[in-house]
Structure formats: C-alpha cells, structure tokens
Specification:
The structure holds 2 protein chains of 2 kinds. Chain A is 71% helix and 0% strand. By secondary structure, chain A is an all-alpha fold. In chain A, helix 3 packs antiparallel against helix 4, helix 12 packs antiparallel against helix 13 and helix 20 packs across helix 22. Chain A has a domain of 254 residues: MetI-like (MetI-like fold, Orthogonal Bundle). Chain A contains 24 helices and no strands. In chain B, 38% of the residues lie in helices and 16% in strands. Chain B is built from 13 helices and 12 strands. Chain B is globular and about 65 Å long. Chain B starts with a helix and ends with a helix. Classes of the chains: A mainly alpha, B alpha/beta. Chains A and B meet through helix 3 and helix 12 of A and helix 3, helix 4, strand 7, helix 9 and helix 13 of B.
Chain lengths: 584, 368
C-alpha cells in the first residue's frame, strides 16, 4: 500500500516499526521452528526418565554398543566421507571450471545430479548390485548371481555405507567448489601463468588460498550430512550389526525407549555442531582472500594436453557410476522377478500387476496400489507446500537479517537460522514429535497432520531458503528499495512489488531445492509420518525392510525421476545456472 | 489326496461340531456400512488377504489395511492416543508382554468378544484382549536341503562352528516377539543347562557378567555371528528358498510354512530340537479407544473370527494354516500341522516375560 507520507517523523517511526515488526516476526518463526523443538528434547532429557537414560547410555552395560561403537563408526564415516568428497568434488570442479578437458559440459551436468538422488535409493541399488549370500542365495545381488564371490565387507557394513554416502555427497562439494573457483577468476591464474609461474605454484599460491574457506565449509557440510545420515546405515548395516548414532537413535525411539534415543540425538547434534563451529573458526582466518577478484581481461583454461581424454574418461566413469548406474540398477531390479537377477525373467508385476496371491502377499503393482498413489500425491503436495512455506519464511527471516541494524541481533538471527544445518533430520523429526505431538494448551496436537510434516520440513530447509533469499537480494540494487521506501511503500509492498519480482528466478531455484530435499528425504519424515499420511520414501523404506525389495526399488525409481526432473526443470529456468561451463 | 482328507475332516468337524455360528446382526452391518470404512493396524501382511475377503463380503465398507510390526504399533498407538487422535479402529498385534501394560491398562485398547463366539472360545483367550490365534517364533530349517529332518537336534549346536554366520533371526532390538523368545530362553535356564550337558557332556560354565544358562546361550549365539535382519520374510527367504545347497537356519514363524509353494520356500519346523524350538504366544484383536468407526471395527473383528463354513470360511482361510493355532474350539486342527499338544514350543507367560525383557534387551545390546 503506497501512501504519500506527510510528516518526516511519522515516516521514520513507521520505518522503525516495520523493521522491528520484521525482526519480531523472524524471531517468532525461528523460535517455533528451531528453538522450541530443541527445548523439547532438552526437557525430555531433564526428566527423571531422561536422567536414567543418560546414565544408561553413557555408563551402563549398553554404553559400548549403544553409544561408543556407533559414535566411533559415525565419526569414521564422517571423516572419510568428508575427505573423499573434497578430493573427488574438488578434482571434478577443477577439471570442469579451469581446464580444457573434453566432455566437461555433460560431466558438469551429471556431477550436480547425485545430490538430487535419495541416499536410500543409492543404498538399495548397492544391495541390488553387491549383495552377497549372507541373507540366503535368493537375495544375492547382480555380481553374486553372476558367480563372483562378493566379500562380506563389500556387501554390508561400514565400507558400503561410506561409499554410498560419498557417491551422494561429493556433488555438494563439487557445486560449492565450482562456485568458489568461478570466484577465483581465471584472470588471476592467467596472470600468474603469463608471469611464468609453474602450475603447481599457481595451485598452491593462488587457487588453494582463495578456495580454502570453501573447502573447509564444503568438508564440514559433507561431514555433518554423513554423520546424520540414517538411511544408508539402516539399509546396509543391520545384517552385520553395523550401527551409527542415527540407527541406534531410531531403534530406541521406535521400540519404546525414546529418552535413550534423545540422548543419542543430543550427541549427534553436539558432534555435527562442534565440527561446523570449528570450520567456521578456520574459515574466518582465510576469509581475507575471497575479496580478491577483478574484471577478467583474458580468460584461459589450463591445457591438459595428452591427459585430456584419460581424465575425461575417469571423470565420466565417476559421474556415470554415481548417477546412471544406480538408477538403472533400481529400474532393472523393479522389473525382475528376483532381486539381483537383473536380466532374467523380466516382469512388470511390481509396477502394474494385478493382485496375485502368489506374489508379495497379494499386493498389486505400485501403480495399482491405492496407498502408493495416495503417497505419490501426498509427497508432491507436502513438497510443494514445504517449498512455498520455506521460501516465505526465508523471505521474512532473510529480509529481517538484512534490515536489522543492531549487529548483535542480526548475527543472532543469522546463527539461529543456520542452526538446522547442524541438526540431523532424524533429530528434527524427533524434536517435533516430542514438542508438537501432544496438545499445547488450547491448540490441538499436530501428530499425524500434514502440518507437522510441513513445519518440520520448513525448519530443516530454512538455512537453504534463507541463503537463497540472501543471494537473491544481493542482486537487487538497494536504491530501488530505498526509493520505494522514501515514496512511502510498506515493507510488504516493497517485498511484493520490487524484491520478489526481481529475484523470482533465484527464489524459484531455492524453492526447487527445498522441494527436492523434501521429496527425497527419509531421515526427517521417518518418525513423523503416520500410515494415514503415507510418503513415497517411507513406503519404499518399509517395503525394503519388509523384504519386498522390488516394490521398494520401483518407488525409489519414481522418487528419483521426480527429483531429477524438478532439478533439470529449475536449471532450465535459470538459464545461467552453470556459467562456468561456458567458454569465454 | 491331502486336500480331500482335509476337506473330509473339515466337513466332519462342521457336521458334528457345535451349532452354526450366527451371522452378524443386521443392525451391526447397517451401522458399519454407514461408517463406510474401517482401518486396521496388523502385525501380519496377511491383512491384505483379509482386506479382499472382507470387501467381497461387505462391498459397502472399505477396509484400509496397514502392515505394522507389533512393536511399532505399540509406539504409534501410544503416540496417537496420547495426542488425542484415533487413526485406527482395530489393532491386530502380538507382544502380549508389553501390550497389557502399555495399551490395555491405560484403556487404549479394549477387548471385544462377539456374542456369536462367546461360547466357543476358552475364557483364557477372551481377556485381556480377544486372542485370534496362537502364533509362534520357532527354529525353522530348509526341508529341501535336509530331506531327513532337521539338521540340528539341540539348540546349543547353533553356537558351534558348523553354524557360524548361518543362524538368521529378526533383530530382537526392533521386534518384540523375537525379544520375547530370547527372554523365554533366559527364563528357561534350567532346561537350557540340561540341554547343554546333553550336547556337550559337561556342565555349563558361565562367563563373567553372565547369570544363567539362557544368557550364556544368547552370548554364545551372538559370538557365533548370528545374522540379524529386519523382517521375518528376510529370514524366510534366507532359510527357506529352494535350490540352496547349504542354507542357513533361522527363527521365524511356523505358519510361514504356508507360503512355501507360493514363494518358493521349503520351510519346516525343527520341533524336535532340545530343549524347545521356540515360543508360542497369543495374537490379539483389540478395539482402539475412541475408534472412529466402532461398528465397522466390531464387524471386522467378528468377520476375522470366521464363519461356520468348512474351516472357518474365507475370513479364516489365511490363518487356517499349519503353524497357527486358532483359538476357536469348534474348528478341527489343521491336518498338516503338529497338533498343539505335541508342539514343543514354550508357552510364554506375558507377565514374567514383561518383567524380564528389558534386561534381556540390554544384554543383547551389550553383546553386539
């Protein structure tokens, strides 16, 4: 609502009020989304049952297998995954942005995809390919069926969990490092090259210093994601009794000892949080370098010479193994009468088959199963609603952060809005159950409602939404907003008439990221869903654990298609999504 | 031939058995049809077969089935009812040792015994909830690979090198009936000690922190790389799949033998194993507190108890199988099954099991 403003005093007052209103709104949002659920867990731990659980988990006879061994496993996985992701993602990022490697276009597109593929889908595809005869000859994977002797350590436990997580998470590192390398600007390296510096020195003295903060951030993010992953160890760990904090926490909560689960979840939050805090400290030391950029005069790519094609083949192998191969394994498995016998006895039963009492207790193919059709639409609806709600919250919080003039308050808003990054999805789910699961005063319980899924989804994706809003806002010249404000426009009006239209493409990209995270997420929703509110990922996980592998694989393939389609659609919308692929 | 004998036996049971079971009252059917749907949480995937039979019998009522383990049902029903929400109408579950304290005593589940069956179900199966049948967790082997009978005759053999990494069971930390089984083994420690001596010829020596022969068995089994899986169907496929030259052995439901033909399994119970092949326990049908469709819930429970036709009719067909012992007294035992009186499994005492199971759960956790 634009209304001419008469007195200058009134104008100033209104400005103050609208800024305060925004901050207050952001505080309320953050409080309910982030702090209150965490307080719920803390309260559960402070109860007598919680105190007992703490002493059982830390010092009881179960301590070793409930806490210390899973904690060690979790740590090891986190470190190895973070390191491998940095190496793999960094290597690919360098090849794609800085060199003249052949095929770098398609390789760059594929390298961004693994993050869109659900972890549990990759884990399931691992069992399809590498399962051994530990669970009997009928559930052997493809290679074992062919007669290869698949060693047990490759089929189950820490090694496959680590590999699956690397295959999923290296693309985060890739995307972040690509963005940083683009920032380096080839002009800097070109200048050094012209000055006669050898390649090793360019890497050491120019590239590494500039991208170091990003490397640390990417490593920390991969570590946090790996530490909190539930689905990969749940699928690949159980047959050899390999547990992480996440699987132990889930087991405790689902079998009637929620307090013990909360203890483990508190430990997970502390571990991931400590690591991210360390990385923030380390980053602060390197930040001075990031400002060194300039206009590119000459942009040259490092010539790989005879190494071009071998490196291109290596990179292609990596991206194909982590995208196309798992997808194909799932699709072919869902078309096979027997899990690992991929090309024998093809059947469409698990997709479109009529109910046959002889197969899977008479359950029809997934496209005929009303619960799955319901789950399909529920998943899409929850994804869309969460996307919209998260972006709205992101707009409020993001705008409040940029408008807040008191540095302390501003930094507090910032920190809290990024807190969910440290909290495993499973923990967010547990926190929301513990807090919103019972009626609060006159408000009804949210247990089993779509609302609780959407709110938890918003909480989990808030950092991404706020970040998307922040980068989008950077594009809008401040003068535009200032002049609207001077003309007397309200904060809402400025958002609606200026900020949102000008930042639409970035906001849509943020929305799609949130949508995809929701659609493919299992960790967050596994504790929140109810049978009346089925979600595709949960159904796939349940089918997998109930021994109906092909149904699980078919659903995983559907999720994969939705995620990748949304991602490709979004990158088609933002035409300049990957400018580093262009030759300039 | 077997089928003819079965039919004859059943026919005779019908002819000379008690008077016909009355059909559900027209009032109940009308009220249930008005409600239009009934939601059931079931610990067995056979609920999908019940769904088809029920909807064929009552086309106006949509049965919404959910296959949820007993353990998870308990957690979910507690969360839902504490939140003041009733999502389900009927719960079909085992885990008697927990169900009584966690769901029946707080009033979350109520017993409903249809009048028509009141005089043909023993009193012990009418409370705390209506017992539909007795279910089992017992040692099963692959009869195709072992045509001469079970490859083991004593549970302690499972702790020897012959069976390293070849004993499969559902993770007792996630499924109550498997935890109840291990708990029963510790409660039967005298029998376990006798069996130890019978097999090894010496008295059992207990390790440190081990209090009895049952706990020692659990420790030795875990030491021998027992394989934990997430569902009984995984056990069945691992143990039962035909065409294996050296199949594992495992603890699963005797009644899963019914799926041998359809699934390509060769499961058979090792009933002769000393001291006992496993446990036998009730599977309950309960009405959920404040069920949104109470009449449809009653109708479904009555339906699931079967009718007067042959072996209990289409509703009982999925359960009239070898290895499930129906609680109705007017039905002939399944001809292919070991009669209940000859079945060696331990009958669990829910109260004693309930008191001991947390300790056993922690023992299992501490041993992994």
């Amino acid at each position: 609502m634009i209304s001419p403003s008469g007195a200058g005093g009134a104008f100033l007052r209104r400005q103050q009020m609208s800024s305060q209103g925004l901050t207050a709104g952001a505080q309320v949002l953050l409080g309910h989304l982030v702090l209150v659920p965490l307080a719920g867990i803390a309260a559960a731990l402070a109860s007598p049952a919680g105190m007992d659980a703490i002493s059982d988990v830390f010092t009881g006879r179960i301590a070793r297998n409930m806490l210390w061994v899973p904690l060690t496993n979790t740590f090891l996985i986190g470190f190895v995954v973070a390191l491998a992701c940095l190496l793999l993602g960094g290597f690919l990022a360098w090849l794609v942005t800085m060199t003249d490697m052949p095929l770098r276009g398609p390789i760059g597109v594929l390298a961004a995809l693994p993050f869109m593929i659900p972890t549990f889908a990759v884990a399931l595809s691992w069992t399809v390919l590498f399962g051994d005869d530990r669970l009997g000859q009928s559930s052997m994977g493809f290679f074992a069926q062919l007669g290869f002797d698949v060693p047990s350590w490759l089929a189950w436990g820490g090694v496959p969990v680590t590999i699956v997580l690397i295959a999923h998470l290296y693309s985060i590192a890739y995307l972040m490092i690509v963005a940083a390398l683009v920032l380096v600007g080839r002009d800097l390296t070109a200048a050094a090259e012209i000055a006669g510096a050898p390649r090793s020195q360019i890497l050491r003295n120019i590239v590494f210093p500039v991208v170091t903060p990003t490397l640390i951030a990417a490593g920390a993010l991969c570590f946090a994601e790996a530490v909190s992953s539930f689905s990969a160890p749940a699928i690949l760990g159980l047959p050899v009794r390999f547990h992480t904090l996440a699987t132990r926490a889930y087991g405790a909560i689902e079998t009637g000892s929620p307090e013990r689960g909360f203890v483990l979840i508190a430990v997970m939050i502390l571990v991931a949080g400590a690591f991210l805090a360390l990385s923030a400290l380390a980053q602060r030391r390197g930040q001075a370098f990031t400002t060194v950029t300039g206009k590119a005069g000459h942009r040259g790519r490092t010539s790989l010479g005879v190494w071009g094609w071998p490196l291109a083949l290596t990179a292609t192998t990596v991206v194909v193994l982590t995208t196309i191969v798992p997808a194909l394994a799932l699709v072919f498995s869902s078309l096979s009468a027997q899990t690992g016998a991929l090309f024998a006895d093809p059947t469409l039963h698990f997709w479109i088959g009529q109910s046959d009492p002889g197969i899977a207790q008479g359950q029809a193919g997934i496209l005929r199963n009303p619960q799955l059709v319901l789950a399909f639409w529920t998943t899409l609806a929850i994804g869309l609603m969460t996307g919209i709600a998260a972006m709205l919250c992101g707009l409020i919080v993001g705008t409040a952060i940029s408008k807040e003039r008191y540095p302390l308050r501003r930094s507090l808003l910032e920190q809290v809005s990024f807190l969910p990054l440290l909290i495993p999805g499973l923990a967010i789910g547990a926190a929301f159950i513990s807090f919103y699961g019972a009626p609060i005063g006159p408000l009804p319980s949210l247990y089993g409602t779509p609302t609780i899924l959407v709110i938890a989804g918003v909480a989990a994706t808030l950092p991404f939404a706020v970040q998307a809003v922040a980068t989008a806002r950077e594009q809008v010249a401040r003068e535009l907003e200032e002049s609207a404000r001077i003309a007397g426009a309200s904060q809402v009006r400025i958002l609606g008439a200026i900020t949102i239209p000008l930042t639409a493409s970035k906001l849509i990209a943020g929305f799609v990221l949130v949508f995809v995270k929701m659609v493919r997420d299992l960790d967050l929703v596994i504790l929140l869903y109810t049978p009346q509110l089925p979600l595709l990922t949960v159904l796939a996980f349940r089918y997998a654990s109930d021994g109906f592998a092909q149904f699980a694989h078919a659903i995983a393939a559907v999720i994969l298609v939705i995620s990748v389609a949304a991602h490709l659609l979004a990158s088609g919308l933002g035409r300049n999504a990957q400018p580093w692929l262009k030759d300039q | 031939m077997k089928r003819i004998i079965t039919t004859a036996l059943l026919a005779s049971a019908t002819l000379f058995g008690p008077p016909a079971v009355a059909d559900p009252s027209a009032d109940l059917i009308a009220a249930a049809t008005d409600e239009g749907t009934v939601t059931v949480y079931s610990f067995t995937s056979r609920v999908f077969k019940v769904e088809q039979a029920f909807e064929a019998a009552y086309p106006g009522i949509d049965l919404i089935p959910f296959d949820i383990s007993s353990t998870e049902q308990i957690t979910r029903l507690q969360s839902e009812l504490d939140a003041g929400i009733a999502n389900a109408d009927v719960a079909y579950l085992a885990d008697a040792s927990v169900v009584v304290g966690a769901l029946v005593e707080p009033g979350h589940l109520e017993a409903y015994v249809p009048d028509a069956f009141a005089d043909r179900i023993p009193d012990q199966f009418k409370s705390p909830l209506l017992a539909h049948r007795l279910s089992t967790k017992v040692l099963m082997y692959n009869e195709e690979a072992n045509p001469d009978g079970a490859p083991v005759s004593n549970l302690w053999e499972l702790t020897t090198a012959d069976w390293t990494g070849r004993v499969v069971m559902v993770d007792p930390s996630t499924r109550g009936d498997n935890l109840d089984h291990l708990t029963e083994i510790t409660l039967q420690s005298d029998a376990m000690a006798d069996a130890y001596k019978a097999h090894f010829g010496t008295d059992i020596a207990l390790g440190s922190d081990i209090q009895n022969a049952g706990q020692q068995f659990i420790a030795d089994l875990m030491q021998n790389d027992v394989i934990f899986v997430s569902s009984t169907d995984d056990v069945n496929a691992a143990v039962g799949a035909v065409g294996q030259d050296n199949p594992p052995i495992g603890f699963t439901s005797y009644s899963d033998r019914r799926d041998n033909e359809e699934e390509g399994w060769a499961l058979q119970v090792a009933n002769g194993v000393a001291p006992a092949p496993g446990i036998i326990y009730p599977a309950f049908l309960g009405m959920v507190e404040n069920a949104p469709n109470p009449n449809a819930a009653k109708l479904l429970i009555e339906f699931m108890m079967g009718d007067n036709c042959c072996s209990g009719g289409v509703a009982l067909e999925p359960f009239y199988v070898a290895g499930d012992y129906l609680t109705r007294t007017d039905l002939a035992p399944h001809p292919d099954a070991i009669p209940l009186s000859d079945f060696n499994a331990w009958r669990i005492d829910p109260e004693a099991t309930g008191a001991a199971r947390t300790d056993v759960a922690d023992l299992v956790l501490s041993l992994q």
